[in-house]
């Protein structure tokens, strides 16, 4: 729990809102109006939609729901309602032009900072520990990751730059870590800004298993490619093979082969695939096929969370792999500090109690699990954040859970309990994976 005075809490909230807005501006001020309103991929919104949607959600939740203010521009609400218009359709809508979208988001923010100065942060559950403000800081940061994905899909000259992470230390790591059987408390009741799908805390009791110490690297993945992995249905699930054929998958997204060498395009620059980086831009189905080829499987999300949070000495669950303190630069590659994952084996100080590395940051990790509610789940504060993505009772899930967060995720939207989800065919997201296996005799 955060031991902050009321004044410190207000300052921390304002700082997180500001970090998000600086990033939003960095991602939208670097391209011209034509690029802001263009659709770079049918999978994504034009950047100018994200910009005004960020402002609109902030107005809805903070100015209207918390502050009781009247709508500023009620006529634009439907344009920025993500459920009314699929992404592919958004460029054809009468969206606010860039200058107006910027002005709207800035005006909302000014009023939100006034509201923050005066509102009680103890009364209602929506405001306790500043939750509603935390929700909005996380929401903006989630869209900042979405906008970075749009930048990755955009063609043309590079506009974003960031320093590369330091190379991984040269220590020899075991290929896998054994996680002992036993009870583990998954999810949370105490994380102040946890979203509804991370709650409530509940006990799971898993058999022992082994999990990769680090994410699967490009070099690992190239062995699967070189072994004809994409040509052999036996490594793929039925749904996976069907998709592999229908979409004609032959390698991770953004990879091309030239003169016998794999190249990869990232943020407008093309270079040889770096062998020691975690593999990125694969579908769930490719991850699943690789794991089967390797004689392994994807971890379930309960296994992932146990590997990340379980402290075998105290038996309790940590907030982060390294402990309870918030992420620092020594722990994890987060927050778009680097516009790429760090080499596998990086961040020894961010290892979990069991010795598993890079669980937080670098790449989102596909898990074997469908996105379903925890026992005792209660939609809060709105059904459309998580509940509408859960399967109907008796139906198969449509979404797979991803854990851990990528280099593009901000610390405010990332923790040991955080759950992300997407369709198993998606791979424009910053997703990789690690593998696991049952232990013999367990
Ligand atoms: C949790 C990343 C799946 O981007 O669709 C943003 C987050 N929800 N605005 C998404 C979200 C509403 C969501 N994911
Ligand atoms: Fe949104």
From TrEMBL:
It is an enzyme of class 1 (oxidoreductase). Fe cation binds at residues 53, 139, 143. Its cofactor is Fe(2+). Gamma-L-glutamyl-L-cysteine binds at residues 87-90, 422, 426. The keyword Mitochondrion does not apply. Pathway: Amino-acid biosynthesis; ergothioneine biosynthesis. Residues 17-147 form the DinB-like domain. Catalyzes the oxidative sulfurization of hercynine (N-alpha,N-alpha,N-alpha-trimethyl-L-histidine) into hercynyl-gamma-L-glutamyl-L-cysteine sulfoxide, a step in the biosynthesis pathway of ergothioneine. This is Hercynine oxygenase. The lineage of its organism: Bacteria, Bacillati, Actinomycetota, Actinomycetes, Kitasatosporales.
């Amino acid at each position: 729990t955060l031991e902050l005075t009321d004044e410190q809490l207000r300052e921390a909230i304002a700082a997180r809102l500001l970090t998000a807005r600086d990033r939003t501006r960095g991602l939208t001020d670097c391209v011209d109006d034509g690029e802001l309103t263009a659709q770079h991929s049918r999978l994504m919104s034009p950047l100018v939609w994200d910009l005004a949607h960020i402002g609109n959600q902030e107005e809805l939740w903070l100015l209207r729901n918390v502050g009781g203010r009247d709508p500023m521009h009620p006529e634009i609400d439907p344009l920025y309602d993500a459920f009314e218009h699929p992404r592919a359709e958004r460029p054809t809508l009468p969206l606010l032009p860039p200058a107006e979208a910027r002005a709207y988001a800035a005006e909302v923010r000014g009023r939100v900072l006034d509201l923050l100065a005066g509102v009680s942060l103890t009364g209602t559950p929506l405001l306790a520990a500043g939750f509603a403000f935390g929700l909005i800081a996380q929401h903006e940061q989630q869209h900042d990751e979405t906008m970075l994905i749009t930048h990755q899909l955009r063609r043309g000259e590079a506009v974003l730059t960031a320093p590369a992470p330091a190379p991984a230390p040269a220590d020899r790591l075991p290929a896998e870590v054994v996680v002992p059987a036993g009870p583990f408390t998954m999810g949370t009741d105490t994380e102040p800004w946890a979203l509804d799908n991370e709650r409530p805390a509940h006990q799971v009791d898993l058999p022992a298993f082994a999990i990769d110490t680090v994410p699967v690297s490009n070099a690992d993945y190239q062995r699967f490619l070189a072994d004809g992995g994409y040509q052999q249905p036996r490594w793929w699930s039925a749904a996976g093979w069907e998709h592999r054929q229908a979409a004609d998958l032959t390698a991770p997204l953004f990879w091309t082969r030239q003169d016998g060498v794999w190249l990869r395009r990232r943020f407008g620059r093309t270079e040889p695939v770096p062998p020691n980086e975690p593999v990125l831009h694969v579908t769930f189905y490719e991850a699943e096929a690789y794991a089967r080829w390797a004689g392994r499987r994807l971890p379930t999300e309960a296994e992932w969370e146990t590997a990340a949070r379980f402290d075998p000495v105290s038996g309790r669950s940590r907030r982060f792999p390294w402990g309870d303190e918030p992420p620092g630069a020594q722990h994890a590659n987060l927050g778009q500090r680097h516009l790429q994952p760090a080499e596998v084996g990086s961040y020894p100080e961010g290892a979990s109690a069991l010795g598993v590395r890079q669980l937080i940051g670098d790449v989102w990790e596909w898990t074997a699990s469908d996105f379903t509610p925890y026992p005792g789940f209660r939609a809060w504060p709105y059904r459309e954040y998580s509940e509408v993505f859960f399967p109907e009772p008796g139906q198969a899930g449509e979404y797979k859970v991803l854990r851990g967060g990528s280099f593009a995720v901000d610390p405010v939207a990332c923790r040991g309990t955080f759950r992300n989800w997407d369709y198993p065919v998606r791979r424009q997201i910053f997703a990789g994976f690690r593998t696991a296996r049952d232990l013999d005799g367990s």
